Amino acid sequence: MKAFVTGGTGFLGANVVRDLLERNIGVRALCRPTPSRGNLEGLDVEIVEGDLRDVQSLRRGMAGCELVFHVGALYSFWVRPPGLIYEVNVDGTRNVFDAALEEGIARVVYTSSVAALGLRDNGHPADETTATSLAEVVGDYKKTKYLAEQIALEYSAKLPIVIVNPSFPVGPWDAKPTPTGQTIVDFLNRKMPAYLDTGMNVVDAQDVALGHWLALEKGTVGERYILGGENVTMKGLLDLLAEITGLPSPRIRLPYTPILAMSYLNAGFCKLFPRITPRMTPETIRMSSHYMYFDPTKAVRELGFPQTPAKDALAKAVDWYGENGYVKN
């Protein structure tokens, strides 16, 4: 059996590829010509050069495969030109599904995100039934994930697609790193003197990779499953990192309104100098005004999705960053 994986060089994709190889599933990975392929180095993976925007490369990659894991996406809160993130995340997702139909793929797992779900006003964890709309979704990244998930739901009537919605994964192979991973790296390098009052759902990246396989085996076509773990405040996450590392946890809580104003100034400055990426954007600060808590009960009950404690998942991330040169002191 062979699987075609998009986004295999990325954080979640690299973990999905490793999980598949451990199951003796042959893997063919879509890779753009330019990015680093370090996350796949030394693995028995067939590389197909291409792009989510190129349907022919997707068809070449899927030829002879039975399974597709569409993990690839542009995960960034600062993309220039802005239209690129829509081309990759929205149009690219439709291209994947069109190619899968043409190639007669038996099963597709689509990696959506909790970014495509709503949040509860009372701070209680949201689940797969928590509705939202495009108008309510904050920022281009979240809008593209919302739109792409709508496409997945539409195509599930004619293509066997199961949708998974990872929360905030942490762990090995976060090479860029992701925004959550950057928080960990900043803490390890003692660049986190203060924090915002927010919260998130922390999940082990290797659990998420397993969750993709569980969704393939046990998931219901057209259904979505939150691949989440433990809900923690930002202060709680930093305290866990302090316990793991022995480094001090910041005690200063930043006020929301001045930081939001600073983020607009930062973003405006970076628009004038396109090669500079802002450390914070209005989008990320606005998102932090909500506790982004999620309930993975459906995935636990229907898929058998594991629940690794946040502290254990963070410890894996700390070890990986330390072993791979991200810690400078």
Describe this structure in words.
It is a single chain. This protein has 329 residues and is an alpha/beta fold. The protein has a domain at 2-172 and 202-229: 3-Layer(aba) Sandwich (Rossmann fold). Helix content is 42%, strand content 17%. It has eleven helices and 13 strands. It has helices at residues 11-22, 55-62, 83-103, 139-155, 179-188, 205-218, 234-245, 256-272, 282-287, 297-303, 310-323; strands at residues 2-6, 26-31, 46-49, 67-70, 107-111, 161-166, 168-170, 194-196, 199-204, 224-227, 230-233, 252-254, 291-292. The chain has a seven-stranded parallel beta sheet with strand order 3-2-1-4-5-6-10, sandwiched between helices. Strand 5 (107-111), helix 4 and strand 6 form a beta-alpha-beta unit. Helix 2 crosses helix 3 (83-103) and helix 3 (83-103) packs parallel to helix 4. The protein starts with a strand and ends in a 6-residue tail after the last helix. The model has no long low-confidence stretch (mean pLDDT 90).
Task: Output the keywords.
329 residues, alpha/beta, seven-stranded parallel beta sheet, 11 helices
Précis, in short:
42% of the residues lie in helices and 17% in strands. With 329 residues, the protein is of the alpha/beta class.
End-to-end separation:
45 Å
Strand portion = 15-25%
CATH class of the domain at 2-172 and 202-229 equals Alpha Beta
Specify the structural class. Answer: alpha/beta
CATH superfamily of the domain at 2-172 and 202-229: NAD(P)-binding Rossmann-like Domain
Q: Return the average pLDDT rounded to an integer.
A: 90
| Spatial extent as radius of gyration | 19 Å
Discrete helix count = 11
